[in-house]
């Protein structure tokens, strides 16, 4: 009986362990809310379906998807995965069918995105996701907010950012060149300007925190 009990305890302990790190995943950003991964398959062989310990959003090409924790997933090369490290409730579509069979609840982005080509795709009560596009040679100023969003450059994007303190001169600030899977994250008191330096539309996954209506 003791052997059986210890064996069951061992099985239970093993089942409770988090999934082993996936060698194809490259962490590009992490905080208490999200872990952002870039998938690199080059020398790792064909993808093997595996499970994530949390709910996650993944973007491949022009498609955005949502999967709940423990769903099997086989990645594609250069895919971007956003693991949602906090529980997510009240998930539903926003103008794009991310959750199959769920209703479409369309609404515009917040006023801070006025004039931007941002289409909201999906939201929970904690997080919102949208696709932002910036035309070639165009610029977009992302104003300071209490809870700044994350902007994740998607495949094919060539862009540059300049971030400066709110109220500082336009010539000041730090400059950075962006490529696919780079994450734009800035303090709440800064203004960030993004310029598309490529020949096609620059595309970003926008991740906002705070839930709908806030």
Describe it:
It is built from one helix and 17 strands. It is mostly beta strands and 214 residues long. It has a domain at 106-209: Sandwich (Jelly Rolls). Strand 9 (117-123) and strand 10 (127-134) form a beta hairpin. The longest helix has 15 residues, at 2-16.
Run of helices and strands = HEEEEEEEEEEEEEEEEE
CATH topology of the domain at 106-209: Jelly Rolls
**Rounded to an integer, what's the Rg over CA atoms?**
19 Å
**Largest sheet: spatial strand order:** 8-9-10-17-12-15
**How many E strands?**
17
Distance between the termini: 56 Å
**How many H/I helical runs?**
1
Q: Tell me the CATH architecture of the domain at 106-209.
A: Sandwich
Structural class: mainly beta
Mean pLDDT: 81
Q: Quick one: CATH superfamily of the domain at 106-209?
A: Jelly Rolls
Low-confidence stretches: 1-20
Q: Sketch the major β-sheet.
A: 6 strands, antiparallel
Entry keywords:
five-stranded antiparallel β-sheet; Jelly Rolls; 7% helix; globular; 214 residues; mainly beta; 17 strands; six-stranded antiparallel β-sheet
């Amino acid at each position: 009986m003791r052997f059986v009990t210890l064996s069951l305890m061992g099985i239970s302990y093993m089942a409770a362990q988090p999934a082993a790190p996936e060698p194809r995943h490259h962490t590009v950003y992490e905080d208490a809310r999200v872990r952002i991964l870039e998938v690199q398959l080059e020398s790792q062989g064909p993808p093997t379906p595996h499970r994530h310990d949390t709910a996650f959003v993944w973007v491949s090409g022009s498609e955005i998807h949502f999967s709940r924790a423990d769903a099997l997933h086989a990645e594609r090369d250069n895919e971007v995965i956003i693991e949602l490290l906090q529980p997510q409730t009240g998930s539903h579509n926003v103008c794009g069918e991310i959750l199959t069979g769920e209703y479409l609840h369309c609404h515009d982005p917040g006023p801070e995105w006025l004039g931007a080509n941002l289409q909201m795709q999906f939201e929970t009560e904690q997080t919102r996701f949208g696709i932002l596009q910036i035309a070639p040679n165009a610029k977009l100023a992302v104003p300071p907010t209490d809870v700044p969003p994350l902007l994740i450059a998607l495949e094919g994007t060539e862009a540059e950012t300049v971030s400066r303190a709110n109220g500082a001169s336009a010539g000041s600030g730090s400059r950075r060149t962006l490529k696919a899977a780079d994450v734009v994250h800035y303090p709440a008191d800064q203004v960030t300007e993004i310029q598309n330096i490529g020949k096609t539309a620059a595309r970003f996954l926008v991740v906002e925190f705070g839930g709908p209506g806030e």
